[in-house]
Amino acid sequence: MASSISYFLFFSSLLFISSSNAQSSFRPHALVIPVSKDSSTLQYVTSINQRTPLVPLQLVVDLGGQFLWVDCEQNYVSSSYRPARCTSAQCSLARGSGCGNCFSAPKPGCNNTTCSVLPDNTVTRTASSDELAEDAVSVQSTDGSNPGRSVSVSKFLFSCAPTSLLEGLASGAKGMAGLAYCTSFTVRFCLQLP
Ligand SMILES: *[C@@H]1O[C@H](CO)[C@@H](O)[C@H](O)[C@H]1NC(C)=O
Ligand SMILES: *[C@@H]1O[C@H](CO)[C@@H](O)[C@H](O)[C@H]1NC(C)=O
């Protein structure tokens, strides 16, 4: 599936803003993590680990997107998942669009008085209104040829999207990692073109 490998920088200094008790003992300015090109869709795909216990997730890299969003509807099991509340600092950082309620049993993506955000799938140009949440994330860095250290963040902000938002993404992808607004204050991925 992967036809070529390139790399992008992952600005972990920004990540730590929302991470008061990060597990990591080192805080580099940037991590380089591998990106491969999906040969059938030509989308760039990367991989991170999320949740407790950690689960590997393939994500489509979205040059224009603002958020990390992942499918929360299918198989989301994590003891460290926390929805962001409507009036929280996280909600203003992520420029929350409103306050959401949910009338079925509480689960990731369904809780009351949670911050709503509008993740979009920039492949199909579909947006949805979803719960902003935090969960643990771990990324494997690389120096460009060899695997480097893993960096863990205990509270990484993301949007908790429905499975339907995955439509049009590379096979196996569970969400998108947005790369826009590299210099803004919230948690972002930033790109270094190879
Ligand atoms: C949210 O509050 C409503 C009304 O109090 C309640 O019926 C519903 O079950 C709650 N939802 C969750 C996810 O707790
Ligand atoms: C729902 O919110 C309550 C606090 O209001 C929290 O204790 C609980 O963990 C949340 N449930 C889920 C599944 O996110």
TrEMBL record:
Q: Name one GO molecular function term.
A: aspartic-type endopeptidase activity
Q: Which residues form a coiled coil?
A: none
Domain (Peptidase A1): give its ranges.
44-194
Pfam families cross-referenced by the UniProt entry: TAXi_N
Keyword Cell membrane tagged: no
Keywords, in A-Z order: Signal
Q: State the species of origin.
A: Vitis vinifera (Grape)
PROSITE patterns for this protein: PEPTIDASE_A1
Name the protein family: Belongs to the peptidase A1 family.
Q: Which InterPro entries match?
A: Aspartic_peptidase_A1, PEPTIDASE_A1, Peptidase_aspartic_dom_sf, TAXi_N
Name of the protein: Peptidase A1 domain-containing protein
| First and last residue of the signal peptide | 1-22
Enumerate the Gene Ontology biological process terms: proteolysis
Q: Does the keyword Cytoplasm apply?
A: no
